[in-house]
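Encode chain A's predicted structure.
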Amino acid sequence: MRLLLVDDHEIVRAGLRMLLESQADMEIVGECENGGDAIRRAGELKPDVILMDVSLPDLPGYDATRAIKKELPQVTILALTMHESDEYFFEMLNAGASGYVPKKAAPTELVNAIRVVHAGGVYLYPSLAKSLVKDYLTHVEQGDDKAAFDGLTERERQVLKLIADGKGNQEVADELVISVKTVERHRANILAKLGLHSRTELVKYAIRKGLIQVDTNG
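Encoded structure for chain A:
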């Protein structure tokens, strides 16, 4: 897959290049240090995936993301940022990004995230999945969303509770003595059953929670 890196720190881009070009299925086709350049270069290069920093010197990453997706809806964008908050994540999702990875993430998490979004999925970093699942479990305890919870298998409920504890795929796999691939399949099934497996559904969730505002002016 062809990747475009967007980050205003050269040392970050160098580290990303070193990591990603070691992957047999990834190629860096360009680098940008600001949003305006990212918009222009995306149009020229038409990459498969763009790694987009949220904090850029000229405009926010979500504005650059929105502009790129408007012109190139087929391009997949993955947010990469210092900020680890629901609001930033949902702003990027609302702009058209398919996932969000904090810069503190392990290299394997980033590589996995790129592959997930390139395949058409939405990538949820463990800390964000934790907050979503905890919110969901609170609703279940209050009597809401009970039908969806009852629709989960016993194994899916075990995985769900470990996600709520903030555990990543490898930690869940180790605890339940199953493969990481099996954990990924369970996570996908759980999020689908909870209505949190697509970008559109996550944006609707964020609007309902008041995490992002709907533009009613057009």
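Residues 127-197 form a domain with the Arc Repressor Mutant, subunit A fold (CATH 1.10.10.10).
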